[in-house]
């Protein structure tokens, strides 16, 4: 089996992480994995949502959107249709949960950090790229809170990254692009932290079911890929 | 470790499946797993959504809702608030995907079957109970299409059922009720077919991350639980 | 004239009232009148809406919904369409007004009781069954407030029940089922209290108009029917 | 008992009906009853809603609105809030039903007449004034269809008018203005045709219940008032 | 070139301004310019929107609507469609900005005046007629605040009025009616104060572009027309 | 007077136009004017909206959005709030009208080109930058229609560009950035074509009114600025 991109089965796409991509946000990262490009901004606001008020802890939340022509054919603009699709809500809930796992909310003070992940160009894997990029933007936002003296604690527990894996033509593969994703038998998104702890696994059979053995093969690839992604995040943050 | 319900770690709650619970729907099943009760109806309509028209195949879709006082404290009614929550949409997308895996859509004719899963009483595991109950309602609806002569094919490929598993006080457990679910370290919903093929896995760390070993322990429990559920579905259908 | 159900013109359908049908609500009643089944829950919440704050009185309100397949053909789910129909709003306003007539709001303390009437199965007369069932659930909720010591007063003034009457094939009849309702010349819903006081009358000509004499004949039937319903409510509460 | 307006108990407010109030609509009537002023326009459109297509009959429907400052204190604009209130929907459904009783829909051809009732100034009784005024606008619209040759039949069966009655300080009174309406024990809206046939009765106890005798006293007043209103409609149409 | 209305190119339509058109609002003006009729009410409410709270100043805002049959063919009701069109929002923002230019907000106290401009009958120029009429209603509302003693300052800085101008068949013309507006090459709305200061200019080419010379010719006409309108406003206020 | 940016009064910000910024759209342009950056994509779809069907002409429309953190403090996401603001709708209507002036719609065939203007980073002048950038994307989309053979005509009539001008500290200035815009006495957006024909003028006094002389001074600056912008558009298209 040769992948459409001619990558090896355990080879992820080339990754670039550009910090300070825009000038206003406390964290602003353009993450590009192959042709998928997502702008991830982290915005710090003082205060927390009502259900957390007075508990002395912070909050991390996320929103996700796709520019109407980030995709091969134009999608209707969600703002114009007047609601976010189920897919959008599912993804932004996933991003929020994943990023909260990176942080000790009680060390964040009563501050809210909102991660906006807006897809500029899509070629598969936008939700996992969003998580990987948003984690870098989140660190920059935390650093800005520390620099300004708003907090003197360290809320960052660990880096978090995500990748998609799948079964394509009977073979477990790492980091599916759109062509593979469209015809994969199984698609699985995995979120892990830097010590290999699993934060989220979402695997879906498309057509055929998958076996425990296939699931394990995919998890192996995900572990390898996420380790590489976290190395890249750390390199970007070290610049 | 003793579970709040005093069940063994690999013991699911008692299950009852009542067919023909209401009189109008082509399939109507009340599924009760412990104190969780969900009414699952299957409605057959001739025709398919626009994106499938003229392709000679059918469609399966699902909607999910909770009665406002199915829960410990009253939740706002989604119809009154004017939109379905992200959680609701996520669940009904999951139910629809899972049930489509049970059926050969090309053998269904240009018919749509809508599964409505309405939670009458909630005690954890409403989404997995919905899938388990809806599959029985779906079979009844398929049988009614066959009896009426609308189709002479067999669209049913296999039974599908779902269960939740989790890590509770460091231990993998089967079929979490609300008390366990509220304090579990990890919650994982698993959907499988009757031959043990995996249709969907959704595992989420709440607080601590989970390991590959824990994931495997949870998958073992899910396999056992789903096999029991499918046996119960078949028994109910045999009546 | 023989009614489709072969009932006498002044004969209502068989009624059953099941208390404690679900476990979380302060009052939970399944009311079944013939094939019409409505789950009525009463939820107590501390506090009142803004327009009543600080006035030292309570509030009773109601919401109404039909499960999508409670009817002969599936109706779109209101939560999915993003709004409640005019019919739904009309009915829930009627239920709320009717139940407030049963209660001395100033003896309720600053508590709100919300009656949720969800139609599980419909065969005509769902709004009147909702009122009859909700009144029993309301009493259970009031009793729970008293048992808990939240109030030491008696807010219940009187039982309230409702029935539909109509002109079917030129004849006044009591408690129309769906078949009669669909072809009745006039449909009238009547709400009364246990002393025969009228709380609400809503009569609508469908096709032909109706006369003062017909209106009086219908009111006579309504009085009889409601007296029987209130007796049944009291019997259920005495259990 | 002296009414705030010093009217006799069976005395309705002065009524004026101005036809051709605006220039574009096929029927355009400003109806003023005391200080209540409603602009009723009837708009003819070729075609019918989907559920009537191909049945060779017409349709009558109604919409109702209040200008934001038609009332003593400004109400939020429904277009700005993004939805019509339950009260608005209830009223426009009532107006539509009432006007359909005036017309033989099968003689209307496949035409739709929409009655828009917009309250310019409110002082109680806006829904009944809307019905009374809209019926005149409807006749003008029917006449325009006949003049243009679009139909050669006579769809008008009878004039329809409406009035409110109530129990005010223990006494049945005709045509309540806002002051009376605010403190009435019972409020009842009655719609009748010119031969005294009842089209709709909606009576609501506010606080105290009402008796059969009071109901009859109110109906007597309504009959008298509606007969006067229909005479005024006919006089206006004869000009 | 002869205008459809046979008016001279610099001749505006006849104008009438009727104060106290309805009885509840603090200012209520029916403005008629030719066949265009707009009811402008000014409602005073104590308090200001959140973004101004505690700043010791007032606020002026506007809402705009068209009755469904104010136009040649019936338009859908915005309240029924559940949102205001882009055109409606654009117009009400323009009216609000224009009227705020008439007033010293810091002399208004913490009061909000809402101008509701509802088009009863449309024949072109409804937004400019709204501004002209609303300014008179605003003055009446300010006078009522002063009479009641709520403020002892003079918030009114100057009268404001508006008119449309355009290029019709190659010629600059004043105050376009609907027929001219539909085929004009350019349409420009101008808002000025009584000393000729420009508050707003909005010129749009429809088809052909326009030149600086044409723009100047239109501005000359607008100056003339607005001077006449302001004289009429002052005459109406002097009554 | 020294401008905050130290630019001369008739000096616009530096401009860059990057074509083919993303890979899927038929035209994709990142326009940057100073710190304002807007991604303008042009999407070609076969077919036209309903109101143009069968007329043998094409359509140009536009949508506009701001990424939530394109601005100094985070704005709520319009898709999450469920509606586009009045400002957004006003701007996208302006962009659409302006771009339609660049094109002979009857030479476009029954094709629709949608311009999506999404603000990545905002520093004033986003609507005018959107028009300037979208025109380049539009040309690329037209060229792609011609290359593919879908049309063999030339729909492009002329280039169109836009700039803001204003009165800042009593002085007419070209191309206001956010700091100037926030405190300008007057803000005017001007859209012109390459022969100097005016397509749209929108001038708004903020605080003080402006005079005819000031309006002329602003128009002179706008002419100069737009000529420079159109030269830059042409240079970018020549690459």
Automatic annotation (TrEMBL), chains A, B, C, D, E, F:
EC id: 2.7.7.56
One Pfam family hit: RNase_PH
Every Exoribonuclease phosphorolytic domain range: 12-141, 159-225
PROSITE patterns named in the record: RIBONUCLEASE_PH
Binding site for phosphate: 87, 125-127
Key word Manganese present: no
Catalytic activity: tRNA(n+1) + phosphate = tRNA(n) + a ribonucleoside 5'-diphosphate
Alphabetized GO MF terms: tRNA nucleotidyltransferase activity
Top-level taxon of the source organism: Bacteria
UniProt entry keywords in alphabetical sequence: Nucleotidyltransferase, RNA-binding, rRNA processing, Transferase, tRNA processing, tRNA-binding
Protein family: Belongs to the RNase PH family.
HAMAP family in UniProt: RNase_PH
Assembly mode: Homohexameric ring arranged as a trimer of dimers.
Protein role: Phosphorolytic 3'-5' exoribonuclease that plays an important role in tRNA 3'-end maturation. Removes nucleotide residues following the 3'-CCA terminus of tRNAs; can also add nucleotides to the ends of RNA molecules by using nucleoside diphosphates as substrates, but this may not be physiologically important. Probably plays a role in initiation of 16S rRNA degradation (leading to ribosome degradation) during starvation.
Name by which UniProt lists this protein: Ribonuclease PH
Organism, as annotated: Spongiibacter thalassae
């Amino acid at each position: 089996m040769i992948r459409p991109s001619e990558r090896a089965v355990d080879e992820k796409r080339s990754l670039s992480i550009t910090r300070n991509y825009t000038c206003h946000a406390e964290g602003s990262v353009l993450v590009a994995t192959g042709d998928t490009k997502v702008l991830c901004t982290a915005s710090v606001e003082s205060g927390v949502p009502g259900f957390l008020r007075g508990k002395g802890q912070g909050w991390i939340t996320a929103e996700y959107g796709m520019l109407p022509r980030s995709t091969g054919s134009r999608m209707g603009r969600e703002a114009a249709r007047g609601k976010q699709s189920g897919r959008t809500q599912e993804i932004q809930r996933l991003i929020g949960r994943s990023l909260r796992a990176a942080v000790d909310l009680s060390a964040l003070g009563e501050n809210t950090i909102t991660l906006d992940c807006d897809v500029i160009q899509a070629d598969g894997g936008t939700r996992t790229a969003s998580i990987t990029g948003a984690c870098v933007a989140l660190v920059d936002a935390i650093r800005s809170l520390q620099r300004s003296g708003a907090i003197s604690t360290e809320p960052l527990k660990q880096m978090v990254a995500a990748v998609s894996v799948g079964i394509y033509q009977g073979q477990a593969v790492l980091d599916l692009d759109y062509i593979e994703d469209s015809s994969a038998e199984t698609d699985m998104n995995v979120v892990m932290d830097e010590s290999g702890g699993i934060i989220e696994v979402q695997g879906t059979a498309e057509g055929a079911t998958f076996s425990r053995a296939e699931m394990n093969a995919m998890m192996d690839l995900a572990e390898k890929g996420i380790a590489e992604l976290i190395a890249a995040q750390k390199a970007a943050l070290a610049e």
